[in-house]
């Protein structure tokens, strides 16, 4: 299940969202200084609560790992959260899953060289919109990082391919997809085969 929402920055709405949030998510949001950051964190948590309800899973199973990543006790399902700009996303699946949403913004050449392989860099040079293509690679790698639990260096070294219709491929044993329906954003999903 994939859920996505657009954020609102109304103070009263944020207070209600905080009150409706699970304690760990509320505490995390309270540590964030910016209104946008708090809204994004709360929205991702509320999507998780709603998704669990739709899947018939209890929110009492939600735990938070040492790195802050949510998981469900007993692994009845796997969850992943993401937020960027004005959107938040949540994925829930019976297999390891990772979701990443990113606003399409300029990325420095230095950053791109850091997270892309030589083959991906060559592919980027041939793209009509290298900025969008770089964000697509980044979202794929982030979704893979979240789903696989691999170290960042291993994820950056993994080779990804993106087709003409946003079809995507990456390391074996995983399914990848990119969604570009939200204008100005890309959303990538990674699931274990």
TrEMBL record:
Taxonomy, superkingdom: Bacteria
Question: Which GO molecular function annotations are given, in alphabetical order?
Answer: transferase activity
InterPro entries named in the record: 4-PPantetheinyl_Trfase_dom, 4-PPantetheinyl_Trfase_dom_sf, P-Pant_transferase_sf
Alphabetical UniProt keywords? Transferase
* Record has Iron as a keyword: no
Q: Where is the 4'-phosphopantetheinyl transferase domain?
A: 96-152
Q: Which family does it belong to?
A: Belongs to the P-Pant transferase superfamily. Gsp/Sfp/HetI/AcpT family.
This protein is called 4'-phosphopantetheinyl transferase superfamily protein
> What organism does the record attribute this protein to?
Yanshouia hominis
